[in-house]
Amino acid sequence: MSEHDNSYRQLFSHPRMVQDLIQGFVHQDWVALLDFSTLEPVQASFVSEDLKRHEDDVIWRVRCSDDWIYVYLLIEFQSQPDPWMALRMLVYVGLLYQQLVRSGELAARGLLPPVFPLVLYNGIRPWQGSERLADLIEPAPGELQGYQPGLAYLLLDESRFPDALDATQHGNLAAALIHLENSRAPEELRSGIRLLLHWLHAPEQAGLRRAFTVWLGRVLLPGKLQGVDFPALNELEEVDAMLAERVQEWTREWEQRGMLKGLEQGLEQGLEQGWEKGRKEGEVALMKKQLIRKFGSLSAQVVQRLEEASAEQLMEWAERILFSETIDRVFEDT
Prior knowledge:
This protein is of the alpha/beta class and 334 residues long. It has helices at residues 3-11, 15-25, 85-103, 173-182, 186-199, 206-224, 236-273, 276-295, 300-308, 311-321, 327-331; strands at residues 34-41, 46-47, 53-54, 58-64, 67-76, 115-121, 154-157.
């Protein structure tokens, strides 16, 4: 298990994280029926036919009236979405059901309990795979269609929640996690960390504070500032103090790395799609975002220049953004 996988698993081994994730991001009526005080982890070790073990997923169960509902939380870290995720989830849920049958942990009437399949994705590219198994199966003729398996999962793509910490998410640790993942500057990181310090001050929350500290020091910060050596961090206060001390220096590095990485991603995505238009639109969108972030709103003339520019011009302007004090300096003599 990688450091990233292990850190996320440690975070979601705490019932508070699971509760905040469901209550904050699953906007469905049945959630109000759950008794989150009964949340408990399910120790599951699955062995599929190819003898590959599935021990890294997070499974919880929670009471809904007199029965359990199982929450199968699959955390995806891979850079590319898996178009066959619905099929994978069908297999995993089937293995869970087999284990419940063997252990006799069935619902009150001797039936299989409900399972809520949830995929938490924090990859770079937006998720594009279907969330329903039916979409992956060729339509069958006539009555044969009724015999095809069906399953759907709920996708929580972290990139779709740029404002995870809005007014409705006060005290929500899962929202803080997503905010930190989506942060674009050290100051945004500090705002999230200060909220964690406020929300996790109680002695009984020491385990969660430690889990967030490990994740920040070993995964998030090294991922956002590659090549920077970070000292060993034991408390959230140390993370906040370190960011405060080096915020200006890291802001410059962050912007430079983010700019170049974003351009590379835009180029890569365009090539994979096989369309010059897709590549160009990705670069222009990134340039607009960077210009707005540094200089504010864009005039119609600037937008037009961006959309009509060549790839070479966009690359040259992208480098100038890092050092220009005004937007006019970015485009002068070109």
